């Protein structure tokens, strides 16, 4: 069983459709077992849901309203605490089910490693897949302190799965020297420090392709998103991240799923991070699905 069938807690705003009625399925992946600095992102999905109650249902940016969507919030997965491998298998299994049923995936993390099994499932469905990745960190390590299942490894894993030339990273400002050497030598696209302008430059080359979008909230400067496990100074603003989301929404790429990860509420005393994350998710749901 992936979820607590009796769950009656908070849902994301207007995510009130049944699974059968839905076009979009949102679900939480409350895992933070492999983090290298500050834990707590397993509580991120529920805090984002709680913060969403303060949102308007209408996006003035996109002139769209959440009532136009059919969204089902499945709640948080029941993952076996401390067992990263089993948790990843369960996430992939649920993503497989969503794709088989024709649903648009919206994942809430949790640490960034949870994106890996979802991307693996999407690649099985869409072998011409490209990844758009926004993050402070390269996440290109093969392992961390001997652990191959680490929140610092998901982008390296997906590069090796789908081909590094199909991975596009933006906003990167932290990582080992070897990670940046790998990015340069492997043929992946990496834009350091900024997001919106370099993203706009590459979107035409991805026109018509299936794309999965993964956003680590720490791509934002800690002034905008202090509530995250591995905050990194020198990041982008909330305005720039919205600009990037809207650039994807207005492009000719076919977004087939997305996630937002690494919100850690215990460090988010003014709730800046959860409030921002809920708004980004509203814009992603209104802007990314093509039908």
Describe this structure in words.
The chain contains eight helices and ten strands. The protein is α/β, with parallel strands linked by helices. The chain has a single domain, classed as 3-Layer(aba) Sandwich (Arginase, Chain A). The strands form two sheets. The protein has an eight-stranded parallel sheet, with helices on both faces. A two-stranded antiparallel sheet has the order 2-3. β9, α7 and β10 form a beta-alpha-beta unit. α2 packs parallel to α3. The two termini are 30 Å apart.
Give the structure's gist in a few sentences.
With 291 residues, the chain is an alpha/beta fold.
Instruction: Report mean pLDDT, rounded to a whole number.
Output: 96
How far the N terminus sits from the C terminus, by CA atoms, comes to: 30 Å
CATH topology value:
Arginase, Chain A
Shape: globular
Q: What would you report as the Rg, rounded to the nearest angstrom?
A: 17 Å
Count of folded domains? 1
Helix share, percent: 25-40%
Described by strand count, sense and barrel closure, the largest sheet is: 8 strands, parallel
Features:
two-stranded antiparallel ribbon; eight-stranded parallel β-sheet; alpha/beta; Arginase, Chain A; 8 helices; 291 residues; 10 strands
